[in-house]
Amino acid sequence: MTIEPLGDAALVVTFTGGSKADVLSQVSAWARALVEAQVPGVVDVVPAYVSVAVFYDPLRVVGSKAGDSTYATLKQQIAVVAGEQRSVQDTSDSSGENIGGRCLEIPVRYGAEAGTDLAVVAAHTGLTEDEVVARHSGAEYRVQAIGFAPGFPYLSGLPTELATPRRATPRAKVSAGAIGIGGAQTGVYPIETPGGWQIIGRTDLKLFDATRTESAWLRVGDRVRFQAVQAQKPELHLALNQVDGAAAEREVEKMNENVATRAFRVVQAGMWTTVQDLGRVGQRSAGVPLSGAMDTFATRVANLLVGNAENAAVLELTLLGPEIEFLTDGWIALTGAEFAGCVAWQPVAVRAGQRIKFGAATKGCRGYLALAGGIEVAPVLGSRSTYGRAGLGGWQGRALRVGDVLPMGAAIREVAERWSIDLRIRPDYSATPSVSVVLGAQAGEFCDTWLKTEFRVTPQSDRMGMRLAGTALARTVGADLLSSAVAPGTVQVPSDGQPIVLLADAQTIGGYPQLAHVILVDLPLLAQLRPGDAMRFQVVSLEEAHERWLAREQALAMLRQGLTQKIR
């Protein structure tokens, strides 16, 4: 077992030795043990293949020895949990195949409209379609990882004769429930998403449901069998982990009550305006991205300026802001990017019936509009943030549209106007920033030209990832990599050599080489870059990254204290 950093807010525990099945059993068992141990500061645990990623909040890690760094302290505590777990082994038979995990069955309708690529797989393998179905449904599979999309299982155990390359051109939409083959793996698409796997069947079973307590139906380490059927009764499989219906009804009633008293109306929607908070913590193991505001610093400050909790839901404005009509008196604050229609970084009073047209961003890319009382949309999986690819959270899981009326909460306290915060507390936003990174797991497989290269942001960038263009980076080692955990800030290098910096809506696992990780305090700099802007990377140590994190939190603490005195 080895432990290595994954950026400045996570580490990766990698297991080696033993059979593939034995390692997976260690991974799944140890991940469960770590969750149960409740190590101080650990906020998320993500098992995948031969590794477990442990995400942490440096400010909440409790040290046991004077002088220990945050990372060293957490590493020691994790090693203790690992030592305790060594005595706990998943049961296995003499063949080593029937080990650990639950054994679950997925009903499948193969071929015809349900499996449009079954004939492609048959032609590639030289088998008949019936033989493909028989072999696919006759095998037992293991869930190696969950990622790519919420609830998406990567399943090992595909008979070798069924291995089929992915489609040359991925489909723009693959329906929820589609069962596909991608290379030597098979899997199930839990939600509608783009995808390039060969689709051989479909299930009506819901592998992902945000209303369930445990949103992903499968877990890493589970055993899976497919059953060929003509008609399906998915309700037999969905009895577990249902949402509390009464609680959901109470949340809807609360929203309706707020709409009647405090709300705002969307007159013009802007380019891409969404509801966001600080993200969906603790859901990565189900393949659910962190999401949340791209610029968490600007979000926290905007909320502080109007007297909200720092995690209250705000509007994220992108390049072209919306026009909003306020249906009640209140206060707003705009931070991050600057927009033509509203002064930034200070509280502004609004009156019932007043409209503000935010217009085009004059500086930066994304603005954060906080409203006193917050935006009272229903939380989904513990967060009000919008994850548009899966239609989760925010306002109906999407960007705002003309005519939308969103509820606001009650203001916590009065706000004093005609003042703004010190410029020195703001991030050093720039169209040509130098962004600090800590080295990634495969950094040594690239020459250091990337540190001397100016990269430009391409128009293909979005909330999932920032695609960069510059001198192509060549990897000196060609070995394939197992997919492992990634996070906002991870710098991946695909085969074309052009880096991609993962952002708020990034997938939870990835298979590209990890060159570096942008440190958390510099992620706001990326949030404000537009297509065509330029950036460079500079390497810092993990200790310096944590020191800068602490300094930022101290600055916010001072701001918080000052606002407590200013806001009565």
Report the β-strand fraction as a percent range: 25-35%
State the helicity in percent bands.
10-25%
Domains, number: 4
Number of extended strands: 31
In the sheet with the most strands, the strands line up as 5-12-9-10-7-6-13
The multimeric state of the shown protein is single chain
Biggest pleated-sheet summary: 7 strands, mixed, barrel
Any chance you could write out the topology, listing elements then pairs?
Elements lengths: L1 E4 L4 E5 L5 H18 L4 E7 L2 E6 L13 H16 L17 E8 L7 H8 L3 H10 L2 E6 L6 E4 L14 E4 L3 E5 L2 E4 L4 E3 L2 E5 L20 E6 L16 H17 L1 E6 L5 E3 L19 H10 L8 E5 L4 E4 L3 E10 L7 E4 L4 E3 L3 E11 L33 E3 L26 E6 L15 E3 L7 E5 L14 E2 L4 E3 L7 E3 L6 E2 L3 E5 L4 H5 L6 E6 L2 H25 L2
Parallel strand pairs: 5-13, 23-31
Antiparallel strand pairs: 1-2, 2-4, 3-4, 5-12, 6-7, 6-13, 7-10, 8-11, 9-10, 9-12, 14-17, 14-22, 15-16, 16-21, 17-20, 18-19, 18-21, 23-30, 24-25, 24-31, 25-28, 26-29, 27-28, 27-30
Helix pairs in contact: 1-2
Give an overview of the whole structure.
Helices cover 19% and strands 27% of the residues. By secondary structure, it is of the alpha+beta class. The protein folds into four domains: 2-85, Gyrase A, domain 2 (2-Layer Sandwich); 103-237, Cyclophilin; 245-425, no CATH class; 434-548, Beta Barrel (Cyclophilin). The strands form seven sheets. Strands 5-12-9-10-7-6-13 form a seven-stranded mixed barrel. Helix 1 packs across helix 2. The longest helix has 25 residues, at 542-566. Mean pLDDT is 89; it is low at 90-99 and 234-245.
